[in-house]
């Protein structure tokens, strides 16, 4: 199965975010309102993107750590289709966010960024039945330790929940993790920092097709 391609608009400039979205929207499956953009601009950017691209999935990268129900209501009322909650959050917060998401027939991604024992934490969360687990290597961690995709294999063996992969992904990384069959590939800087974001997305899609 072909994975969905999600582009993270991890910017703080609304105008630039919308410019990039305009260039890449026809080529991608999910437009992500990155955490910096959400903090800088507010939930109105979610509404703007959904109005411009009603047929695209819009993900709000809330990285929720508390008040799961409240943050779910905020972004879904703004017309997001998906949100994120941190695996490091209290189980009560994750449950509140998942429950509200399910009530509204939306999707939720549990982001394992910053979690040391991911497998153990996954076992604690899996019964809540989130839509996706995101195995996300933080940028600061990449700079010190590099990138690794071994957790994808581990999670595929232990959980039935679709997986996302994120964290500094470039086209050369795609063959390394495609054998683990991620449901969503999340790319940020390779596209948003490119001189030609559209060409960057095309390069990613070519590598995905080659790896299938």
Quickly give the CATH architecture of the domain at 1-108 and 165-198: Alpha-Beta Barrel
How is the largest sheet built, in terms of strand order? 1-2-3-4-5-6-7-8
Which homologous superfamily in CATH is the superfamily of the domain at 1-108 and 165-198?
Aldolase class I
Overall pLDDT confidence: 95
Strand content: 15-25%
Outline the biggest β-sheet: 8 strands, parallel, barrel
SSE topology string: EHEHHEHEHEHEHHEHEHH
Count of runs of 4 or more consecutive helical residues: 11
Distance between the termini: 8 Å
Which word captures the global form?
globular
Number of DSSP E strands: 8
Remind me, CATH topology of the domain at 1-108 and 165-198?
A: TIM Barrel
Rg from Cα:
16 Å
Helix-strand makeup class: alpha/beta
CATH class of the domain at 1-108 and 165-198: Alpha Beta
**Helix content bin:** 40-55%
- Low-pLDDT parts are none
Give a verbal description of the structure.
This protein has 212 residues and is of the alpha/beta class. It has a domain at 1-108 and 165-198: TIM Barrel (Alpha-Beta Barrel). It has eleven helices and eight strands. Strands 1-2-3-4-5-6-7-8 form an eight-stranded parallel beta barrel, surrounded by six helices. α4 (68-77) packs parallel to α5 (91-103). It is globular, with a radius of gyration of 16 Å. GO terms for molecular function: 3-dehydro-L-gulonate-6-phosphate decarboxylase activity; hexulose-6-phosphate synthase activity; orotidine-5'-phosphate decarboxylase activity. Its EC number is 4.1.2.43. Belongs to the HPS/KGPDC family. HPS subfamily. Pfam families: OMPdecase.
């Amino acid at each position: 199965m072909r994975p969905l391609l999600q582009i993270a608009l991890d910017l703080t400039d609304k105008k630039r975010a919308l410019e990039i979205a305009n260039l890449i929207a026809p080529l991608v499956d999910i437009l992500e309102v990155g955490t910096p953009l959400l903090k800088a601009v507010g939930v109105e950017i979610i509404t703007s993107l959904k109005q411009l691209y009603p047929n695209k999935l819009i993900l709000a990268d809330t990285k929720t750590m508390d008040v799961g129900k409240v943050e779910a209501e905020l972004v879904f009322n703004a017309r997001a289709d998906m949100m994120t909650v941190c695996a490091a959050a209290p189980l009560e917060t994750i449950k509140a966010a998942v429950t509200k998401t399910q009530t509204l027939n939306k999707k939720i991604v549990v982001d394992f960024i910053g979690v040391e024992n991911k497998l153990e934490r996954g076992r604690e969360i899996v019964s809540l039945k989130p839509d996706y687990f995101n195995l996300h290597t933080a940028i600061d961690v990449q700079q010190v330790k590099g990138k690794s995709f071994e957790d994808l294999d581990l999670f595929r063996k232990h959980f039935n929940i679709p997986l996302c992969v994120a964290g500094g992904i470039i086209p050369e990384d795609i063959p390394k993790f495609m054998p683990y069959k991620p449901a969503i590939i999340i790319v940020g800087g390779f596209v948003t920092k490119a001189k030609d974001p559209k060409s960057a997305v095309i390069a990613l899609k070519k590598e995905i097709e080659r790896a299938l």
